[in-house]
Amino acid sequence: MGIVNENHGAHFGHGAVERLEGTLEAVEGIGRDLNAVTSAMADRARTLARKSEARAAAGESERSLEGIPFAIKDVIDVAGFPTTMGSKVSSGPDPSTTAPVVDRLERAGALPVAKTNCQEYSYGILGDESAFGRVVNPIGPALCTAGSSSGSAALVAAGVVPLAVGTDTAGSVRIPAVCQGIIGFKPTFGVVPTEGVFPLSPSFDTVGLFARDISLLTSAFAAISGNGRGDSGGKAVQAETPTVDTSLLTTADESADGARAWTEQHLGDVRTTSAKSEELVEIIERLVGIYDIVRRYEAYVLHSQFADEQGEAYQPGVWAKIMSGQTITEGEYREQVAALEELRAEAVAIFDDVDYIVTPAIEGEAIRWDEIGQESAAKFMRYAMPFNVLGWPAATLPIGPVHDGSWGSGSSIGGSKAGAESEADPDSRPESVQIVGRPHSDEMLLEFVAGF
C-alpha cells in the first residue's frame, strides 16, 4: 500500500486525557515553530477526552473517531474562540456557535486541539499572505506551503495531528497537501455543510480534509457528510474493473513524468483511456471564464461591507484581488451563474463510460518561496480549480519522497512501503497525483484511492 493505513482508533478508552497531552505539547511546540497555530484548544480537547474516558469506563461502544486529535482552519467557527481568517480585519464578534462540520467531528469522538493559520480570508493559493506571517513547510522552510489551508496541512505533515480540516475553493486543500506531502480531499460540492465557515466564493467553496491515513480520512468524511455516508444514497457500486481517463496526464509536460510512471505502475489492473481529451479540454476552456467572474464578484460582495473602514487592514495582494471584483455587474454575474449550472449539467456525461479521471496535481513542480512568479498561482490551480467549478470530488495523494510525519526527516509514501525510513534529499520536491470521481461518488472515490 502506498498510503499510510493505520488503526486510527488507538486513542480510545482509558488514558485518553494522558495521551492527548502529548498532542497538546506538540501543538504548542512544533505547531508554534511552524507558525501553523492561531489558537490552541487545550481545555475543549481535555473536556472531550474526559468524556471519551467516561464512555469507555461505562462500556459504551467506540465512536468512529474516538480520541482522534484534529485541527481546524481558522475560517471555521468554534464557539469561544476567535475566527481570525488570518487577518487583522474585524469581521464581527467571536462566534457563539460551532460550525456543523466541527460539531459532527466532535460527536464522532474527535478532539479539536488547534485552529490553524491560513491565507487571509482564504483568498490565495500560494499561502503567502496572512496577518500572522507564512506557515513553515515541514518538509523544508524554503519550500512554498501553498494555501489557503496552509496551517492545517502543516500540522498533519509534521505529525502534530493525524487529521485536519480546511476549505477548498480552487485547490486550497489539495494544493497545500501536494506541497507538504500528504493526502488532501475535496468532497462533492454541497455534500458537507458550510454553515459557520466564512466563505470566499459560495458557488465553489467546499470543506475538505487532510490526513496521512486514508482510512482515517474516510471515517472523517463519513462523519462530516452526515448519516455516516456521503455518496448518493449509498447506491454507488465500485466497478469490478474501473475505467480511468488519463487524458490530462498524457498531455501534461515533462514535470508530470513521475505521475505518469506512477500511473503505469499502479493502474495496471484497470482500463485506461485518453478518449476524453477533447471533451475535457473544451470543458476546462469554458469554465475558466465562469470561475473568474463568479469568484471575483462573490468575493467583492462579501468584503464590500468592510471596504470603507478597514480596506487598509487587508494584506495588499488579498485586497487587490477583492477590489478586482468591483467592476463586475450583477447582470454579468447572473449570466455566468446560469452558464455554471448548464456546464455542470452537461459535463457529468464524461462519466457515462469513465469511472475516474487521473491528472497531475499541479502544473510543474512544487516551488520554493523564492521561485514564486506571476504564473505560479495559475500553475498551482490548473488541475485543481476545474473540479471546484464542476463540483466533482477529488483527492490528491503523494507519490514520491515526502515527509514521514516527524518534522526534520523524510520517507517515501506512494512509491515504497509506507513509513519506511529514507534519507531526505534537501533539493527534492514533493509530488502527487490527483484522482477525480463523478459527483456524489465520494466514498467510492476514497475506496479507489485506498487501493494505492
UniProtKB/TrEMBL annotation:
What residue spans carry the region label Disordered? 408-439
- Bias category Gly residues: which stretches? 408-417
**Which InterPro entries has this protein been placed in?**
Amidase, Amidase_dom, AS_sf
Annotated Gene3D superfamilies = Amidase signature (AS) domain
UniProt xrefs under Pfam families: Amidase
GO MF, any single term: transferase activity
Domain spans labelled Amidase: 21-244, 310-446
UniProt protein name? Aspartyl-tRNA(Asn)/glutamyl-tRNA(Gln) amidotransferase subunit A
What is the protein's species of origin?
A: Brevibacterium sandarakinum
Q: What is the lineage of its organism?
A: Bacteria, Bacillati, Actinomycetota, Actinomycetes, Micrococcales
